[in-house]
Amino acid sequence: MLYDPNHAIFGRRFGRNLARLVRVYWGSPDASRGALLLVGAIVLELATVLASVLVARAEGAIMDAIVRKEASAFLVTVGVFLTVSLALLLASTYRVYVRQALEIRWRRVLTAYFVERWMSPQAYALSEMHRGEVDNPDQRIAEDIRDFVASALGLSLSFLAALVTLVSFGGMLWGLSQPWAIDIGDSHLRVPGLILWVGLLFAGFSTWLTHVVGRRLIPLNFDRQRLEADFRYGLVRFRDSVEAVALARGEAVERAGAMQRFRHVIRNWWQLIVAQRNLTLLTTSIGQANALVPLLVAAPAYFAGHITLGSIVQVRYAYGQVSGSLSWFVNAYQEIARWRASIERLATFGEVMDKSSDEVKRGGIVVVPGDGEALRTADLRLRGRDGRVLFDRATLNVESGEHMALTGPSGLGKTVLVRAIAGLWPFGEGRITLPRASILFMPQQPYFPIGTLRAVVSFPASAGTFDDGRVHELLRLLGLGHLEGRLGDTEQWEQRLSPHEQQRLALVRVFLHEPEWLLLDKATSALDEDTEMGVYELLAQRLPRTTIISVAHRAALARYHEHCWVLAPDHDGRVTLRAA
Which residue from 112, 129, 211, 339 lies 20 to 30 Å from 119 (Cα-Cα)? Predict the structure, then answer.
């Protein structure tokens, strides 16, 4: 998903998206603790500014004592300077510490919010319906949230400090420039707060110019995060599929794809560094010119005897602080650009999840829990993502304890029917009533979580839920006795195990969980016929009361089931579901 240039950079959409992200944390139970940390961070920011004002006054007093050659006054002012410098050091250090403590708490709550929404049944619908609209959800959750929270606190607190600095040092500048006069011939022109007005005008012009030059950074940063994540995902995917690629001798194609994605990164990077170069040239030039402004303005007053050398030191320090506060936007522009991109990426992610959830709720297929112990479908019509009708008028009744096989040619929608029963397929119309019982779905390619083998066989329960002795027995029953001693090992098990070992390991889960209903979607397709026969005999022995629905790829599998339903085209070419 590319950045939309029609969105105003800081318009109504930006405000709405920012408010939504902020509410997630500040409306959470942790907000009260966060408020205490925020108050502490604000107090320390203000203390830092106050200490800076006192340091400036102490520096001016030191210079005046030197000019007057007053040793005792010099020693007193040095003592004051050291004291306020220590206070400045402590305030500066702990303001960062407190801010980071709040940052990690905010990030924890916001990450949990997005993880809960993303790792849910709607994730499947989102990936099916909006796969072109949201790229790299993992990066948005891991990196964009981190950057958003860090910049939200960093920018807001630094902006507050800039405002307080402007007021504090602005008043100092106003007072210091009161006695100044500009000599024009025999006339003396006095402009109250002259150097403050100079700073305001200079900062206003600099801010406008910086925005004109730097606004290109916002879409470039948005695209940089997407392109970098695409490149990284391709490398991870190759790592996870290295055996399949090697067997297909597809390294050259994968290499070409990786370098093509990297070329997009490079092109974006060059655009980004050119834009950053232009902005850096501008901001550096502004900074260099700004350093001379207080001296150029104050020098005539000093030469005319209106102010002392100590006043010059104070003016320069105070002007630097005022100028820095007025140039906050200039100095923070690159971070603001990255922050704006993070907000946009998180906002679009949230919007698509909202839209996906609404579409599932409004979907034509209604999946509801029933009061009985049967699974029923009524006038079910399933469609593909493209709107094509897969099959029509499907009425299916499965009573508790039955074993039913679902057969038919490939590509007619048997797997889609299982997904619809699971509530994952919103495309179509009709009603599915689920039994009041525990249901376990077992797909053709089982999912193995990251962790130990014990965690793999326990999934979706947590590791250690089942007794190791029972796990060992089931591993031996399913021909996986060589794995008995590896329950505590952590591996990439989907790469270490062959397809038939993966399916047998997934069957271990079935016997551990003992579901009341079991839906097998070609879950034994990698097994040979003798092993498959043994699996169904074990199911009958160990789970005699479990209702089983099997999507069969072999016709012989039907003999292990009491009922057989077939998906097949009728005389007019439409696919229907009927009893065999």
Answer: 339
Tokens 């060589």 belong to 482
Handedness of CA 403, 404, 407, 411 (dihedral sign): negative
Name the token pair of 82: 């050291």
Alpha carbon distances (Å) from 301 to 187, 198, 322: 14, 15, 20
| Whole-number Å distance between alpha carbons of 110 and 105 | 9
Q: CA-CA-CA-CA torsion for 41, 47, 51, 57, nearest 10 degrees? A: 130
Do 304 and 415 lie in one domain? The reply is: no
Domain boundary among 310, 338, 361: 361
Give pLDDT tens digits along the chain (580 positions): 444 544 555 668 888 888 889 999 999 999 999 999 999 999 988 888 788 878 877 877 887 788 788 888 888 888 888 888 898 888 888 888 998 899 999 999 999 998 888 877 666 665 666 555 566 777 788 888 988 999 899 888 888 888 887 777 777 767 666 656 555 555 565 666 666 677 777 777 777 777 777 777 777 877 887 788 788 878 877 877 776 677 667 778 888 888 888 899 889 889 888 888 887 787 777 766 666 666 666 666 667 666 666 666 667 767 777 777 766 776 777 788 788 888 888 888 888 777 777 766 666 778 888 777 888 888 788 877 777 777 777 778 888 888 988 887 777 778 888 888 887 777 788 888 888 888 899 888 888 887 899 988 998 888 888 999 999 999 999 999 999 999 999 888 887 888 899 999 999 999 999 999 999 988 888 888 888 888 988 998 999 999 998 887 777 777 788 888 887 776 666 666 666 6
Cα separation, 413 vs 365, whole angstroms: 15
Same domain assignment for residues 355 and 380: no
**Residue 62 maps to a domain:** no
Q: Which CATH number is 241's domain given?
A: 1.20.1560.10
One domain, residues 320 and 417? no
Segments forming the whole domain that contains residue 262? 106-361
Q: What is the dihedral of CA 434, 436, 437, 442, to 10 degrees?
A: 10
CB pairs under 8 A, 24+ apart, for 237-242?
240/492, 240/494, 240/495, 242/495
Q: Is residue 357 part of a domain?
A: yes
User: Looking at 299, 330, 361, which one is the last position of a domain?
Assistant: 361
State how far the Cα of 42 lies from the Cα of 57, in Å rounded to an integer.
23
At residue 577, the 3 state secondary structure works out as strand
Tokens of 194: 């002259």
